[in-house]
Amino acid sequence: MKNIEQQFLNELDTQLWKAADKLRSNLDAANYKHVVLGLIFLKYVSDAFEERQKELIELFQKDDDDNIYYLPCEDYDSDEDYQQAIAAELEINDYYAEKNVFWVPKTARWNTLKEKVTLPTNSVVWQNEHGEDVKLRSVSWLIDNAFDEIEKANPKLKGILNRISQYQLDANKLISLVNEFSTTRFHDPEYKGEKLNLKSKDILGHVYEYFLGQFALAEGKQGGQYYTPKSIVTLIVEMLEPYKGRVYDPAMGSGGFFVSSDKFIEEHAKVKHYDAAEQKKQISVYGQESNPTTWKLAAMNMAIRGIDFNFGKKNADSFLDDQHPDLRADFVMANPPFNMKEWWHEKLADDVRWTIDTNGEKRILTPPAGNANFAWMLHMLHHLAPTGSMALLLANGSMSSNTNNEGEIRRTLVEEDLVECMVALPGQLFTNTQIPACIWFLTKDKSAKDGKRDRRGEVLFIDARNLGYMKDRVLRDFKDEDTQQITNTFHDWQREWSGEDNQAGFSFSADLAAIQKHDFVLTPGRYVGVEAEEDDGIPFAEKIATLTSQLKVQFEESDKLEGEIKKNLAGLGFDV
Prior knowledge:
It is built from 19 helices and 17 strands. By secondary structure, it is an alpha/beta fold. The chain has a 9-stranded mixed beta sheet with strand order 7-6-5-8-11-13-12-14-17, sandwiched between helices. A hairpin with a 5-residue loop joins β1 and β2 (133-135). α9 crosses α10. The longest helix is centred in the first third of the chain and has 33 residues, at 29-61. The radius of gyration is 30 Å and the shape is globular. The mean pLDDT is 89.
């Protein structure tokens, strides 16, 4: 991305966030995101619709043999008839559907909203299909009506747009927000007099992602339920490399892994020499989310990017109401709630997902009822295709705990050669928890294929706890080079590796015998060792002499300070 485009997006973020943040005094942080994101979505679909309309007007009037849209002016009796014909053609849904542009009825278009939003209550805003006057009930009703009309016209969006009347917002606050968003252009953007090569969905996608991150920060612990930090999502996607196939997330939140997979295909198009748009058609997205409002956020997140998705018939619990029971995905990735306690139900006791095929025999490994960490892992393994790969973010305790069958499950996963790589992450990466985390990478097939060597009987350990930087007082983030270091190490190990490639203090490829010696504890720090210190060339005897001399001086200083303190206390009448 060009620097000027990044500047434009940064200023847009700031402008829109300042406008949105004015609602904070009126609304709970968990609720005002729905009002703000809903309005931004409304502005985007209207802009995208208008953008397509401009394209069509040009096509209708362009006399070109290859232009199937051309409407010859001479076929009409007058210029007025010609303009009316064009206006009528512009209201044909198929022209928009063929470009995956959402149809926006007249009463839901942003210009209509902006024009009517300042009218007094009970003013006539339009006539319905029966010719009857429709009067303005309230500003929130006007916005909700737009959502209603858009959902009716676009079955894909049915049930995913959150209505705002329920929040009982002050009309002036909403009018202010509509006016502020009206200055934003999602199509044909310009910055400092220069036309930008940014598509409307790219701009909205960026804004949507930025806002989700800001809302997660504002909500603290609750925000983590729908938002995984971008750096971690990017790391996992870069390591798994989902170029094609079925991608599944059973705890999808707002759908960050799917968005990142979509971006991954775009960003690697030049290097891999493929057409990004065509390559994206080879990816299919499956997700599940129990929280109804988060489920809607995810669906809206996909809709604005034109990503086709299957999130089941409804929001539902992945354990108790699996929406994709027959799915076997090529890539499974998730950031479920850490150490979730309230998940168990008696009907899960003999669930097929807890069964692992060990040496041709079926073995049931029931996860502990008081912690869902390994339940998520077994659920994901169950949905993994025979040649698939998966990544799971979990609390560090999952690498060493022996409580309630967890140690036995971990041992079995290692013995069955399902664990491919363990990554220990630095602290303070998450907005919602300070619990140290790790990433488990599992696969059902480590044999040599698709440019990868035979890794059977090996597990790669990466200790990334010292990577990253503090982006502010409380949050750590990865730089691009940190992500590349981890990713390159993993891919190098998959393709070609020898004992000399192990990096002391950072990475180590261990065989199953070494893991057994550590009692199947998978903490990377146990395997990678300590980073070798550079020799500064000073002889040991000389170092000791220098340190001893420094220590002697410090002891003398200490004695002097102690004497001064006793003297001062005596002057105050205290005998020490």
